[in-house]
Specification:
This protein is of the alpha/beta class. The chain folds into three domains: 22-243, 2-enoyl-CoA Hydratase, Chain A, domain 1, CATH 3.90.226; 262-510, 2-enoyl-CoA Hydratase, Chain A, domain 1 (Alpha-Beta Complex), CATH 3.90.226; 520-549, no CATH class. The chain has helices at residues 62-78, 101-106, 109-132, 148-155, 173-177, 185-192, 197-204, 212-217, 230-243, 299-305, 310-328, 343-355, 360-377, 398-403, 442-446, 452-458, 467-472, 482-498, 501-511, 519-534, 538-541, 546-549; strands spanning 28-33, 36-41, 59-60, 84-89, 94-96, 98-99, 136-141, 144-146, 158-163, 169-170, 223-226, 262-263, 267-269, 273-278, 283-289, 334-340, 382-387, 406-409. Helix 3 (109-132) runs antiparallel to helix 20, helix 4 (148-155) packs parallel to helix 6 (185-192) and helix 11 packs parallel to helix 13 (360-377).
Length: 563
C-alpha cells in the first residue's frame, strides 16, 4: 500500500487528509522575525475542499483550519524561539468572515459537526499554548471580523481591533443563519472574556457588530488602535509579550517531517499504530506498538531522535489516526484499543518524560499527548479497551483503558499460549500530566465518589498488576477468564453496533465528563447537544431555512414553536 492508495472513503466521499506543511498552504502565511511570528490569513477562495462554493472574504472551510492547526503545531515544535504569534489578515479591510456559509449549507450534518469539533480543538490548542507553553497569541483584527473570525480572535490571549470607523466584531449566526456560533463563541464570550450576560445577549442578536470604544467597554476586545498606528502598536505589544515568555530563544526546534501512513480498504497503518476495520461490526481495532527498544532518557538522546522519539511519534500518529477515523470513517462507531510489545520500554519512555519535564521539548511532547487523549475523550465513538497477554497498557497507554467506556482484562492466560498473564502498570503519567478536558486526571474522574482510590492506585506505581488486583483497584470494568473472554467481548461489540448511534453519542458525552465543568467541557457538551440539534432543524437547514436561503435575497421561513 502507498500513502495515497485510496482517495475515496468507503462511502464514496473524497478522503480528507489532515497532513500538510507550510510550503503547501493555500490560505495562511507564516513568517518568523526573532521572537515574534506572524500568521496571516489570506484565503485562496478557489482552494476549497469540495466544489460548489468559494471562500470569499477570508471565510474558511475545514481545509483552512487544517492549515491553521499545522501552523500552530510547527510554531510549538519547530520554533521554540518564538514567544508571541500575531494572528492577522492580509486581505484589505477584512480579518475573517467566519465559516463559509455555502460550504455549511451543502455539507452533510456529520461534516458540519466534525468541522465544528476540529475547529474547537484547534482553538483549544491555541489556548493550551498560552496557558502552558509560554506562547502568547495576539489577534490583530485589521478589518471586519464576524462569526468564526471573531471566534478565532477569542481563542487568542489579546485582541486588538483597528479603529477605522468600519471594522467591527460580531457573532451574527443567530439572526442571520438560525444557528449558534459553532466554535465555542457563546461560552468563550461569557466564561473567558467575562462579558456581561445582558451585553452578550445584545451582541449575539445583532448582525451589525460592535466597533470602537463600545467594543473595549464591553470587553469584546482588549484595545482599539487607530489605523495610522496599528502596525506599530501591534509590534510593540508582540515584543512585550515575547519578552515575558519562558521559551528558549537559542534552542533548536524539531522539524515535523511527514507522517508515514498507508491506507487500504480494511487497514490504516503507521509506524507505531495500526487500525483494522471491520465494517460489518462498524468497528476499528486500534493497536499501538510499544517502542522496540528502550528509548533515550537524557535530553541529548531525546533531541537526537526528534520526531522518532516514541512518545512524540505516538502522539503524531494517534492524532492523525483519530482524525482519519472521525472524518473518513464515520460509520465506524466502535473503537477497540489494543497494545503490544515490551511494557518496560513504555515505562522507560514515561520516565524520560517525567524526568525531563522542565525542558521545552519534553513539555511540548507531553502537552501534545494530553491534547491527543483529549481528542479521544470528545470523539463520538464507543471506546473499548482489551487487555490481553502480550499487551503493554503501561502509564501513558493505560490512559486508554481508563478513558474507555468499557474495558476487559483477561484473568489468567489463553489455553495453549506461552505468553505470561496480562498485566497493567501505573506510572507518574497517570497522576497529573495527561488531564482530561474537565481538568481531572482520568483516575480522579473515575473515582469521584472515593478519592482514596486514587491514592490506593498511586501506591502501586511501577508494579505489574494482574487482573484480579486491577479489578480491586478499579482500573478495569470486567475480568473474564479465557472461557468467557471471546463471548463477553463479542457481545459488547455486537451490542454497540445494534444501538442507535445518536443515543450512544448522547449517552457517552453525558457520562464521560462527570465532576467540574471547564471552558472545554462546556463547549463540547453544548456542541454535542445544542448544535447537533439546531443543525438538523428545518429553521436552519430546511428548504426555506436560514442556511439555505442566505445570500439569495429570500427571507427564511421559521416554525415559531418553542420546544
Amino acid at each position: 500500500m502507498s500513502t495515497d492508495s485510496l482517495d475515496k472513503t468507503a462511502a464514496g466521499e473524497p478522503r480528507i487528509d489532515f497532513r500538510t506543511s507550510p510550503e503547501s498552504y493555500h490560505h495562511w502565511k507564516l513568517s518568523i522575525d526573532g521572537r515574534v511570528a506572524r500568521l496571516a490569513l489570506d484565503v485562496d477562495e478557489n482552494a476549497t475542499l469540495f466544489p460548489g462554493y468559494e471562500l470569499k472574504l477570508n471565510s474558511y472551510d475545514l481545509g483552512v483550519d487544517i492549515e491553521l492547526y499545522d501552523a500552530v503545531q510547527r510554531l510549538r515544535f519547530e520554533h521554540p524561539e518564538v514567544g508571541t504569534v500575531v494572528v492577522t489578515s492580509d486581505k484589505p479591510r477584512v480579518f475573517c468572515a467566519g465559516a463559509n456559509i455555502r460550504m455549511l449549507s451543502q455539507s452533510t450534518h456529520a461534516h458540519k459537526v466534525n468541522f465544528c469539533k476540529f475547529t474547537n480543538e484547534t482553538r483549544n490548542g491555541i489556548e493550551d499554548a498560552t496557558d502552558n507553553s509560554g506562547l502568547r497569541f495576539v489577534a490583530a483584527v485589521n478589518g471586519a471580523c464576524a462569526g468564526g473570525g471573531y471566534e478565532l480572535a477569542l481563542a487568542c490571549d489579546h485582541i486588538m481591533l483597528i479603529d477605522d470607523g468600519s471594522s467591527t466584531v460580531s457573532l451574527p449566526e443567530l439572526p442571520l443563519l438560525a444557528v449558534l456560533p459553532g466554535t465555542g463563541g457563546l461560552t468563550r464570550l461569557v466564561d473567558k472574556r467575562k462579558v456581561r450576560h445582558d451585553r452578550a445577549d445584545y451582541f449575539c442578536t445583532t448582525s451589525e457588530g460592535i466597533r470602537g470604544k463600545r467594543a473595549t467597554d464591553w470587553d469584546l476586545v482588549d484595545e482599539i488602535v487607530p489605523r495610522s498606528k496599528f502596525d506599530e502598536v501591534v509590534a510593540t505589544r508582540a515584543a512585550d509579550f515575547a519578552a515575558e515568555s519562558d521559551r528558549p530563544a537559542d534552542a533548536k526546534g524539531v522539524v515535523l517531517t511527514p507522517i508515514n501512513r498507508a491506507v487500504g480498504d480494511t487497514q490504516i497503518a503507521y509506524d507505531n499504530v495500526k487500525i483494522d476495520l471491520d465494517r460489518e461490526l462498524a468497528m476499528a481495532t486500534i493497536t499501538i506498538k510499544a517502542p522496540a527498544e528502550a528509548p533515550p532518557t537524557d535530553m541529548p538522546g531525546i533531541e537526537a531522535q526528534g520526531v522518532d522519539f516514541w512518545p512524540f511519534a505516538l502522539a503524531r500518529e494517534l492524532d492523525d489516526a483519530i482524525m482519519e477515523l472521525r472524518v473518513n470513517e464515520k460509520e465506524i462507531g466502535t473503537w477497540v484499543f489494543k497494545t503490544e510489545g515490551n511494557s518496560a520500554n513504555v515505562e522507560a519512555a514515561d520516565k524520560a518524560l517525567l524526568d525531563n519535564a522542565d525542558h521545552w521539548l519534553v513539555r511540548e511532547i507531553t502537552l501534545y499527548l494530553k491534547r491527543t487523549f483529549k481528542r479521544i475523550d470528545v470523539s463520538s465513538r464507543s471506546l473499548i479497551a482489551q487487555v490481553e497477554p502480550g499487551s503493554c497498557f503501561t502509564g501513558t497507554l493505560l490512559e486508554l483503558v481508563v478513558a474507555a467506556d468499557r474495558s476487559f482484562m483477561l484473568d489468567g492466560g489463553f489455553e495453549g499460549s506461552n505468553l505470561p498473564d496480562a498485566t497493567v502498570v501505573l506510572t507518574g503519567m497517570n497522576f497529573g500530566p495527561l488531564v482530561m478536558p474537565n481538568g481531572l486526571t482520568r483516575l480522579e474522574h473515575r473515582f469521584l465518589n472515593d478519592p482514596s482510590m486514587v491514592e490506593n492506585a498511586k501506591a502501586e506505581i511501577g508494579k505489574p498488576i494482574e487482573a484480579v488486583e486491577a479489578d480491586e483497584l478499579g482500573l478495569v470494568t470486567f475480568i473474564p477468564d479465557d472461557i468467557d473472554w471471546e463471548d463477553e467481548v463479542r457481545i459488547a461489540i455486537e451490542e454497540r453496533a445494534s444501538f442507535s448511534p445518536d443515543a450512544l453519542t448522547g449517552m457517552e458525552a453525558s457520562l464521560r465528563f462527570a465532576g467540574p465543568e471547564t471552558l472545554e467541557t462546556k463547549i463540547f457538551g453544548r456542541l454535542s447537544a445544542w448544535q447537533n440539534w439546531i443543525f438538523q432543524r428545518p429553521n436552519a437547514v430546511g428548504d426555506d431555512g436560514a442556511l439555505k436561503v442566505y445570500g439569495s435575497g429570500q427571507k427564511a421561513s421559521y416554525n415559531k414553536q418553542r420546544i
